[in-house]
């Protein structure tokens, strides 16, 4: 039953009558008149009134899009789904720092929620306690403020609001928030905050380092992210991530005492390491461990697998019925070993040494005995102990020297006469003469190796040349002296004197006597070098022109050049009436008179032009004063005879070039030559006619030939050295050649050799003398052979028989002491002084060789039957024959164990075929405890994969924990710096918001916006109510404080409907807020973000009065919901925070 509405003008009695009217259908119901007095709570009256559509100016509250969503439901697909949105790939978002900045820490779920909200989505954010809801709200408010949005932050509880306010204060953004949580907010506190906000305007500059910080932040983030992506991706077909593989490798290495390097297969393919393969091999390894322990247990006290009697047998195909066959083959090998031991013992007894016991020693002993040289029987075996080391080498050198000395004697005997060969001292006296000849024939800047050597025949020829030169020079020496006297200077018989004399005779004879008479100092002038060629050129040109006109004109009677030029010009310039001009006729007459034959037919004008050129050339030549100045009377114009002048100048220049100018003997010769009398010149010409020039030329050529052959001979380097007299260079050379050649003729059997060969013969003879003396002084024979060798050297001797015996003894000693590898054998053999003892040793060696071959064949038979690894079989016994016999006997005594051993090697082979044979060998060699084999196998698998990963991922190869930790520290530093700079940037942007100035003058009731706020801030008392301040200065308030922090009740109390509209409404602790309490705040915004924990209990409705006047089917979702969080969850997209602190 629904009670009637209570109208405003109803009295109690009127209302009771209305109730009584509707009770007719309920006869048993009565109306009782009584009244209850009580205290009622009207604190939410304003919130109730705030929802009245009539109180909202313009459009109704119901027209708000957010409010309509709550009452009309969801229309767009996907919105209001019960599932949560997937997290965004934060690092892939472009310009995230510019559009979605963070001022506090945030994980990807929080940042994703922030991005959705900034992009304008209506959103529900859920998160349990400690998941960062307040932190997310702080970042969201800051990002929205940077976008220029007005934010209304609503929380039911003051504590929730203060948490966010405190975070914003810490970030330096608290001054941009206006806190009005309830009706109890103090006006003084609000105005004080506004005053501080106004005073701080302009004090938040834009940070200058933000872009660089972002760039460095992104670089570090990319490096960290790249590593994270690389380490967490799945590796190929393993089914595991790289991080899991690398971690497993490190973990198993810690539980295994052997390093992975000693366990990895030598060759492996990681492609086969699939999960199936790894599990299959692990099962095989497990079975191997079990069998290994069973086989090792057979040995009881010593459980080492190498001590098993059948260790080394590797044929996996052997069966239990093969035991008899295997033991039979082993018995055969055993008998061969016993025979070998006896043969070895026989050799030990013969040599009288402790003995050789191993198979390897027996093989080496057999090999060494076979290598012994065969003895003739005449060797000096008693001297063998002396022939060791250095003494053996000295003896071999001694014997070689003996042979070489005899060979040298034989070779020298073919070239040197016998009397000299028997007395090498005489031969040595030729050494200085030969050395001097070689020296003086050596090129001045060459070496002996590059200088051609003279033959003895050539030396004889040069001896004759030197003798002839001296004789010829003595024959003309008086004449040379006389010529020098005629020239006023002394000419000597030196190379330079002869050359000067040759030059004087040549140059004097070449100049004609007529030209010689023209000598004058003016020809000693270098200017003539230019003038004479120039004059000659002009004379030649003039002569060429004269040759052209001389057949036509009379050149001897030519008028002066100017007169001739005027006549020709007059003759050429007259016109048609020239015959009437007397001047022309006169010029014609005079010009015709110059012709040799007036009747000859010529181009008269053309020839006159040539004649004028001739006249001009002649005038130019004659009028050149330089020619007169330089040549004087020798210049006669066009009649100058130029060739004698040129010859005379060349004569002067040649003399100066030869003898120079100034001072010195040569200069005096040149001066004397220039002043030479005609008589002297005639005398020189006479000498030339008598052949003096040819004699001088022959002497000089002979001298140069001799000097070229003996360039280092004394005196030949000095051109002024006299060439006559007993002490002259020629005389000394003549004496040296005569003496040397005389000795060579006496010494040598042959003369068809050169000087260098002679020197070699002399030097070899000298060296031979020294070697004979050293050989005779040697103590090799007396000290090492007791003086029995008696080796003598000399000409004509042949090698002694003892020389061959000694060589064979050294060969035996060299082999015994240097070639035998068996330890102790050399010492044992060298004391065998009788050939029979050596032959006995050789025979025993042959018997040993036979036993070794028998043992080898028996072992090969056993090996072929069992696939034996001989090294494993000898793991305990080694190579000692007696130990091997004991080991074989142990195996023969335990033949029944062979079957168990075959089971073991089959499992071992299976592991090896799978590539893990090194693991098994490490266990068998006691390097790896069998209990660690399982972990070692997993270590090997993960290590193989790890190494492949490192090769394929270079960035991981260079990764170190220390470097990565430092990178994280750097990133954290820049992350902190970036948040700080983002706070500064947001504060700077908000400070730049334009604040409406409003009205500041006039009546107080007319003030608005910044003018009103400034006035209220400046007052001490009588402040207007906050609701009135918000109504009159709302635009300025949101410009100064774009974030309002309020409770649901304070929204209705301080914000008149429609006065301030917010871009974003954020509600915290939404699970504690009833839908009807939140609608007033929601209606004041364009976008809504609801934050809360759905696990918290909803607000209590215990004292609410339920009026069931409508059916439940007609209720809207918002009416059914207990909290605004529940109501929004079915309408908007949802995100869940997952970061728990």
Task: Describe what you observe in this structure.
- By secondary structure, the chain is mainly alpha-helical.
- It is 57% helix and 3% strand.
- The protein is built from 49 helices and seven strands.
- Helix 8 (187-199) packs across helix 43 (1009-1018).
Summary, kept brief:
This protein has 49 helices and seven strands. The protein is mainly α.
State the CATH architecture of the domain at 47-186 and 1037-1136.
Answer: 3-Layer(aba) Sandwich
CATH fold topology of the domain at 47-186 and 1037-1136? Rossmann fold
Q: Report Rg.
A: 68 Å
State the total count of DSSP E strands.
7
Strand content: under 5%
- Annotated CATH homologous superfamily of the domain at 47-186 and 1037-1136: P-loop containing nucleotide triphosphate hydrolases
CATH class of the domain at 47-186 and 1037-1136: Alpha Beta
Keywords:
Rossmann fold, 1141 residues, 7 strands, mainly alpha
Topology summary:
Elements: H1 12-21, H2 45-50, H3 65-72, H4 96-99, H5 108-118, E1 123-126, H6 133-146, E2 151-155, H7 158-170, E3 177-180, H8 187-199, H9 210-232, H10 242-255, H11 275-297, H12 323-351, H13 359-371, H14 389-413, H15 418-421, H16 424-428, H17 431-441, H18 456-486, H19 495-510, H20 513-516, H21 528-549, H22 561-573, H23 582-592, H24 604-622, H25 625-631, H26 642-659, H27 665-674, H28 678-689, H29 692-709, H30 729-747, H31 755-777, H32 780-784, H33 801-818, H34 825-830, H35 835-866, H36 870-873, H37 881-893, H38 897-913, H39 917-924, H40 933-952, H41 954-957, H42 961-991, H43 1009-1018, H44 1026-1032, H45 1034-1040, E4 1043-1046, H46 1048-1054, E5 1062-1068, H47 1075-1082, E6 1085-1092, H48 1117-1120, H49 1124-1129, E7 1133-1136
Parallel strand pairs: 1-6, 1-7, 2-4, 2-5, 3-4, 5-6
């Amino acid at each position: 039953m629904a009670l009637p509405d209570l109208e405003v003008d109803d009295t109690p009695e009127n209302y009771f009558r209305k109730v009584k009217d509707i009770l007719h259908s309920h006869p048993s119901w009565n109306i009782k008149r009584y009244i209850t007095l009580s205290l009622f709570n009207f604190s939410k009256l304003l919130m109730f009134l705030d929802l009245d559509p009539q109180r909202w100016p313009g459009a109704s509250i119901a027209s708000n899009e957010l409010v309509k969503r709550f009452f009309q439901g969801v229309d767009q697909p996907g919105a209001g789904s019960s599932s949560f949105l997937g997290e965004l790939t934060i690092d892939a978002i472009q310009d995230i720092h510019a559009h979605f900045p963070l001022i506090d820490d945030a994980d990807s779920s929080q940042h994703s929620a922030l991005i959705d909200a900034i992009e304008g989505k209506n959103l529900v954010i859920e998160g349990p306690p400690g998941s960062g809801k307040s932190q997310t709200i702080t970042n969201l408010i800051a990002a929205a403020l940077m976008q220029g949005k007005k934010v209304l932050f609503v929380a039911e509880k003051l504590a929730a609001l203060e948490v966010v306010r405190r975070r914003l204060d810490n970030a330096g953004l608290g001054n941009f928030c206006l806190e009005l949580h309830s009706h109890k907010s103090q006006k003084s506190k609000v105005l004080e905050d506004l005053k501080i906000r106004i005073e701080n305007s302009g004090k938040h500059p834009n940070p200058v380092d933000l872009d660089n910080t972002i760039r460095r932040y992104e670089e570090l983030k990319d490096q960290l992210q790249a590593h994270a992506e690389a380490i967490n991706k799945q590796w190929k077909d393993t089914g595991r991530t790289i991080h899991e593989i690398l971690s497993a490798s490190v973990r198993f290495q810690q539980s295994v005492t052997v390093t992975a390097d000693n366990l990895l297969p030598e060759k492996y393919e990681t492609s086969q390491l699939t999960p199936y393969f790894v599990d299959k091999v692990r099962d095989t390894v497990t079975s191997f461990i079990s069998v290994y322990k069973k086989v090792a247990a057979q040995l009881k006290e010593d459980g080492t697998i190498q001590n098993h009697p059948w260790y080394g047998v590797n044929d996996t195909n052997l069966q239990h019925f093969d035991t008899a066959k295997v033991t039979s083959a082993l018995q055969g090998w055993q008998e061969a070993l016993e025979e070998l031991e006896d043969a070895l013992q026989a050799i030990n007894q013969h040599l009288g040494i402790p003995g050789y016991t191993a198979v390897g020693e027996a093989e080496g002993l057999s090999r060494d005995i076979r290598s012994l040289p065969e003895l003739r029987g005449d060797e000096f075996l008693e001297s063998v102990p002396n022939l060791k080391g250095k003494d053996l080498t000295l003896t071999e050198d001694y014997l070689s020297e003996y042979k070489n000395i005899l060979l040298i004697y034989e070779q020298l005997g073919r070239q040197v006469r016998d009397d000299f060969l028997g007395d090498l001292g005489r031969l040595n006296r030729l050494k200085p003469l030969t050395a001097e000849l070689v020296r003086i024939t050596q090129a001045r800047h060459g070496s002996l190796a590059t200088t051609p050597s003279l033959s003895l025949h050539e030396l004889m020829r040069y001896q004759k040349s030197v003798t002839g030169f001296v004789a010829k020079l003595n024959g003309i020496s008086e004449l040379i002296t006389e010529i020098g006297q005629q020239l006023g200077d002394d000419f000597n018989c030196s190379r330079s004197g002869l050359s000067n004399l040759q030059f004087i005779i040549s140059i004097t004879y070449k100049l004609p006597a007529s030209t010689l008479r023209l000598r004058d100092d003016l020809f000693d002038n270098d200017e003539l070098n230019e003038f004479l060629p120039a004059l000659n050129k002009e004379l030649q040109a003039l002569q060429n022109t004269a040759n052209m006109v001389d057949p036509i004109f009379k050149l001897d009677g030519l008028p002066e050049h100017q007169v001739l030029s005027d006549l020709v010009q007059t003759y050429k310039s007259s016109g048609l009436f020239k015959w009437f001009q007397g001047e022309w006729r006169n010029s014609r007459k005079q010009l015709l008179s110059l012709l040799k034959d007036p009747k000859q037919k010529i181009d008269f004008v053309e020839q006159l032009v040539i004649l004028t050129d001739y006249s001009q050339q002649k005038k130019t030549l004659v009028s050149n004063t330089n020619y007169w100045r330089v040549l004087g009377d020798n210049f006669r114009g066009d009649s100058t005879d130029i060739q004698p002048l040129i010859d005379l100048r060349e004569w002067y220049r040649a003399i100066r070039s030869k003898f120079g100018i100034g001072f010195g003997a040569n200069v005096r010769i040149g001066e004397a030559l220039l002043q030479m009398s005609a008589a002297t010149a005639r005398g020189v010409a006479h000498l030339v006619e008598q052949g003096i020039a040819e004699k001088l030329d022959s002497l000089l050529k002979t001298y140069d030939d001799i000097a070229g052959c003996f360039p280092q001979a004394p005196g030949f380097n000095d051109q002024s050295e006299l060439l006559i007299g007993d002490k002259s260079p020629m005389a000394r050379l003549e004496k040296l050649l005569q003496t040397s050649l005389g000795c060579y003729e006496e010494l040598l059997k042959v003369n068809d050799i050169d000087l260098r060969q002679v020197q070699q013969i002399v030097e070899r003879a000298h060296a031979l003398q020294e070697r004979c003396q050293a050989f005779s002084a040697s103590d090799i024979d007396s000290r090492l052979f007791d003086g029995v060798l008696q080796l003598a050297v000399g000409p004509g001797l042949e090698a002694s028989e003892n020389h061959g015996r000694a060589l064979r003894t050294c060969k035996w000693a060299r082999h015994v002491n240097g070639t035998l590898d068996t330890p102790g054998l050399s010492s044992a053999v060298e004391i065998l002084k009788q050939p029979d003892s050596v032959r006995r040793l050789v025979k025993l060696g042959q018997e040993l060789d036979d036993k070794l071959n028998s043992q080898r064949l028996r072992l090969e038979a056993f090996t072929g039957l069992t696939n034996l690894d001989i090294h494993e079989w000898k793991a305990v016994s080694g190579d000692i024959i007696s130990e091997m016999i004991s080991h074989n006997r142990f195996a023969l005594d335990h033949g029944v164990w062979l079957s168990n051993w075959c089971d073991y090697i089959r499992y071992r082979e299976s592991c090896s075929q799978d590539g893990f044979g090194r693991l098994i060998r490490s266990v068998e060699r006691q390097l790896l405890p069998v209990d660690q084999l399982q972990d070692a196998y997993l270590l090997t698998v993960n290590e193989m994969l790890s190494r492949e990963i490192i090769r394929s991922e270079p960035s991981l190869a260079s990764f170190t924990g220390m470097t990565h930790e430092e990178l994280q520290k750097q990133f954290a530093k820049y992350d902190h710096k970036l948040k700080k700079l983002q706070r500064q940037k947001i504060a700077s942007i908000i400070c730049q918001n334009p604040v409406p100035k409003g009205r500041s003058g006039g009546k107080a009731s007319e003030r608005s916006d910044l003018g009103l706020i400034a006035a209220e801030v400046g007052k001490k008392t009588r402040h207007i109510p906050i609701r009135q301040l918000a109504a009159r200065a709302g635009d300025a308030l949101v410009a100064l404080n774009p974030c309002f922090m309020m409770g649901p009740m304070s929204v209705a109390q301080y914000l008149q409907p429609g006065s301030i509209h917010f871009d974003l409404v954020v509600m915290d602790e939404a699970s504690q807020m009833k839908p009807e309490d939140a609608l007033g705040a929601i209606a004041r915004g364009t976008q809504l973000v609801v934050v809360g924990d759905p696990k918290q209990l909803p607000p209590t409705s215990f004292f609410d009065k339920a009026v069931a006047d409508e059916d439940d089917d007609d209720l809207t979702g918002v009416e059914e919901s207990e909290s605004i969080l529940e109501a929004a969850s079915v309408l908007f997209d949802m995100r869940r925070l997952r970061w728990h602190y």
